[in-house]
């Protein structure tokens, strides 16, 4: 993946590293390009106009391309969690020493600006064999690597990738060590949200379940194996026309929609979820309950009204259509009835009742009565 001549890099020993090297050889889209600089100091890069951005170790942005250039560094375990490391970045650190601290061999390859591969840990062979394998026993020092390995498999599973058995063993060892408890909730969610955006998101949760990490990080999901299997089965299925940027929160909603309210809220609190995925999960759960009532022959206007009120449909009309589309994937007839009932009920507005002389509490009661009446009529004819 050779690039054009860059005068700012003249005289520096630089290597393209990580995902850009891996994905270019895999034929996967390359989205970010990162570099390692060997034998230099922060002052060297600053004099050339590079902008420092790293807080824990020296990372700089190229003033023109804005690509990241990190000084070669080593890490030594000094505490718990993924932040419990002492970092040394100095001109004495070699490229091989920098690469050995990485998680997987396919992420520990480098190449020169001219495209010459540097592969001290067999990353290319593992890439060709479709194997995710740890670089060194130091894999067990960083609990985040359990989640990252699962996420990479969620990305590449469809290409035939597997996790090496010895790496799975280290993942189980990491879980048993208790290190996962030191991961901050926000970082767990960040990795999970990325995984939910991968092509095979169900694989991520299956890997975590198999190594015991899911029981530690998301015990509500791990508690019932059969329910988890069913949730993973519906995870890839989303309503049509969901924008790509919204797919992770929709997949999260599909994953947890079967959980009881208290369990769903406890999981959201444990992961410190943002408001958007919390709300959508609650709406998906309400929709699931509505569908269950329909299957049991207990659907009436009151239940549909409760669903519309629960998703705040009267104020947030944009929520109705995608949830109806969710219903349509399993029950097109019910979805058609809900869409018609909603359209007719939404046409009954408070303004018209005010003109008839209704006001105050009586206005609200009459509005609800008329809306339910049209919904009942649609369900009776459906």
From TrEMBL:
The answer on whether this UniProt entry bears the keyword Transferase reads: yes
The source's superkingdom equals: Bacteria
**Any one Gene Ontology BP term:** tRNA 3'-terminal CCA addition
Q: Which cofactor does it need?
A: Mg(2+)
Q: Recite the UniProt keywords alphabetically.
A: ATP-binding, Hydrolase, Magnesium, Metal-binding, Nucleotide-binding, Nucleotidyltransferase, RNA repair, RNA-binding, Transferase, tRNA processing
tRNA nucleotidyltransferase/poly(A) polymerase RNA and SrmB- binding domain location: 160-223
Pfam families assigned = PolyA_pol, PolyA_pol_RNAbd
Entry EC number(s): 2.7.7.72, 3.1.3.-, 3.1.4.-
Task: Give residue ranges for domain Poly A polymerase head.
Answer: 15-133
Question: Family, per the entry?
Answer: Belongs to the tRNA nucleotidyltransferase/poly(A) polymerase family.
Protein name per Swiss-Prot or TrEMBL: tRNA nucleotidyltransferase (CCA-adding enzyme)
Q: Which organism is it from?
A: Halomonas stenophila
User: What lineage does the source organism belong to?
Assistant: Bacteria, Pseudomonadati, Pseudomonadota, Gammaproteobacteria, Oceanospirillales
């Amino acid at each position: 993946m050779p690039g054009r001549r860059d005068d700012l890099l003249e005289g520096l020993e630089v290597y393209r590293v990580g995902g850009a090297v891996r994905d270019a050889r895999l034929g996967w889209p390359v989205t970010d390009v990162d570099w390692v600089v060997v034998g230099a100091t922060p002052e060297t890069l600053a004099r050339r106009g590079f902008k420092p951005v790293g807080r824990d170790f020296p990372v700089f942005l190229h003033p023109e391309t804005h690509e990241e250039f990190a000084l070669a560094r080593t890490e030594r375990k000094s505490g718990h969690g993924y932040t419990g490391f002492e970092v040394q970045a100095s001109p004495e650190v070699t490229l091989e020493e920098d690469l050995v601290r990485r998680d997987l061999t396919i992420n520990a390859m480098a190449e020169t600006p001219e495209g010459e591969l540097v592969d001290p840990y067999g990353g290319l062979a593992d890439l060709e064999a479709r194997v995710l394998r740890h670089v060194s026993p130091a894999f067990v020092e960083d609990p985040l690597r359990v989640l990252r390995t699962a996420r990479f498999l969620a990305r590449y599973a469809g290409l035939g990738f597997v996790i090496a058995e010895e790496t799975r063993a280290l993942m189980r060892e990491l879980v048993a060590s208790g290190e996962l408890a030191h991961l901050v909730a926000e970082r767990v969610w960040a990795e999970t949200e990325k995984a939910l955006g991968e092509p095979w998101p169900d694989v991520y949760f299956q890997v975590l379940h198999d190594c015991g990490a899911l029981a530690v990080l998301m015990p509500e999901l791990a508690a019932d194996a059969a329910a988890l299997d069913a949730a993973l089965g519906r995870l890839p299925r989303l309503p049509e026309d969901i924008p790509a940027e919204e797919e992770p929160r929709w997949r999260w909603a599909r994953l947890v929609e079967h959980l009881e309210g208290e369990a769903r809220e406890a999981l959201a609190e444990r992961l410190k979820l943002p408001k958007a995925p919390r709300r959508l999960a609650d709406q998906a759960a309400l929709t699931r309950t509505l569908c269950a009532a329909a299957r049991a022959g207990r659907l009436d206007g009151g239940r549909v009204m409760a669903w519309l009120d629960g998703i705040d449909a009267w104020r947030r009309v944009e929520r109705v259509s995608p949830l109806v589309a969710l219903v349509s994937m399993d029950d097109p007839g019910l979805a058609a009835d809900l869409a018609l009932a909603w359209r007719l009920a939404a046409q009954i507005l408070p303004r018209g009742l005010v003109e008839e002389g209704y006001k105050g509490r009586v206005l609200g009661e009459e509005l609800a009565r008329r809306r339910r009446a049209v919904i009942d009529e649609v369900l009776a004819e459906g």
